[in-house]
Amino acid sequence: MKNILSLLDYVHSLSKTDKELFSRIYSVSGDLGLLKVPKDIQPWVSSKFGSVEVVESQKIIRVDNRITFESSLFNQLRAKRPIDTNNKTDVESLIKKTENDPFCKPLTNTPRDSFGRVKGKQSISASNIAKYDSHHGLIIFKEHNPLKFSLSSIKDYLETAQKWINKVYKLNPERKFPFIMWNCLWKSGASIIHGHMQTVMAKEKHYGNIEKLKMFSDVYTDLFKADYFNDLFKCHEIIGLGFKKGKNKVLAHLTPIKDKETIIIAKELNDSSKTIYKVLKAYMKMGVRSFNVGIYLNPLDNSWKFPVIIRIVDRGNLSDNTTDFGGMEVFAGTSIISSDPFKIINNIKKEF
Known about the structure:
By secondary structure, this protein is of the alpha+beta class. The protein is built from twelve helices and 13 strands. The protein folds into two domains: 228 residues, 2-Layer Sandwich (HIT family, subunit A); 106 residues, HIT-like (HIT family, subunit A, 2-Layer Sandwich).
């Protein structure tokens, strides 16, 4: 099976045309991290990492997106490093203990938007009590446990979110830049365990990363007379990190913001429910319990248009006492990655 540490070899083996395309967007470099392990800790190192040799000479792969300036450093040895954990965390029992929270009775225990509520069969809207932006809604799941999702429930959540977005836009046409997010459990930033998505609507301009992506994609089109998102997918597809299914394109991201990032490129939001469900189902089988889903949507006045971009990322073990975002991600803008995109895409493909 392919692995990220051999990425340079895969790129070198591409045809001239494919290599030129790949090199438009990505640069790849490899390096070694060298160190000497003292004799006193060699038994411990061998037990933790498999051997002293792999620690003394660590292969590191750096991938940079030349267009968006996203970058990632891959070292799979980091997945084996010792981390302070709370091994007693029982996720299912903890979730169960929080039943009967305010979200379990949203009609009486959560605020509503000034225009009322939007209802789905398996979800209902509320107004966020401490807002990110002036129009900040919640899509509260009927199911308390956020890990108990189905294809029909995800479809319902997204439909309810879209109805909320449309309602805000109808009443406030200046609020035309929508974003949907799902923060699942506390490692993802969720303050409430009960399953819920969030919706926000910006005016004047889209939120920062979406504006940047639009600008970079426009620059790419101007330079190469080609669609950035099509070529981004092709770069992943030609090295085995992307596939098409129906109207959706799925890729294991070469410059993930954090571990196991998957990107879905869809024509419309209502085309994406099944793909999101299957990707999350694969994540669950890989042991993921806390994740973020971010959905980039076009401005509602169609002043510009690109595909619906859905980003899904693992936020790490719920028992770990550390966060997955450190100084490199926050300040340097380069993500430190311990997962292998080739393993991720292979596990996702099994669900399709």
